[in-house]
Amino acid sequence: METILGLLITLVVLISLVGVLTWFGGRKAIKLTVSQKRGWLIAHVTSIVIYFSGLFGTLLLAISAKLTTEQELIYAAHLFVQYFDWFLIIPGAFASLITGVWLAVRTNWGMTKHYWVMAKWLGNIFAILYGGVFMRVWVHDNFNLIFSSPHHPLQNSFYLQNREMLFVGISLSFSILIFLFVISYLKPWGKRDSRERSS
Ligand code: HEM
Asked: Which pTM was predicted?
């Protein structure tokens, strides 16, 4: 029940955020100037670098936790995975969405004119929901459960299973981000048919 509630709240926040940005940006008759667009593109790519660096850091820490048998080092690795999530991945994901939507609505790209743009905001929203529902459990919720136990983590089957799920989560998040990164340069699938957009 808590997971569904969490999913719904995150979804309402995301739809409201995209809705307000699209409405506000759409009211502005004049599009971004070349230098303004360059500024927003720098902000957009910076937020993506923050997002990626949080994921890379999480992957490195998860690998280091797997390569050691020392309880303190395993504890420290998972503690810092929480910090990377709170201070890099979550802010980076939201900043990528906000700057991306603003770039789309304030330039001729628009939100629903091109398939690659639609794939990006759907992909970014999916990545945030996935993180909010599943990664949250493997990174944060299970942390206290695992490290308040008297057992050494490597003798704790719950920890071992949680660590494997964390790797699954990191892999899926990386796949989504690399896909969104690549389509940002290839801009595939062309333009949506104006009849389809108007229908
Ligand atoms: C984590 C998710 C995202 C990643 C990894 C990503 C990646 C990128 C990259 C690397 C660029 C620079 C491309 C270039 O230099 O030509 C870019 C540009 C852009 N992105 Fe994103 N982006 C993301 C989310 C979004 C979202 C949610 C939107 C919203 C619709 C969006 C819309 C745009 C637009 C309109 C541009 C400018 C394209 C241009 O004029 O060349 N992005 N994105």
From this structure: 0.91
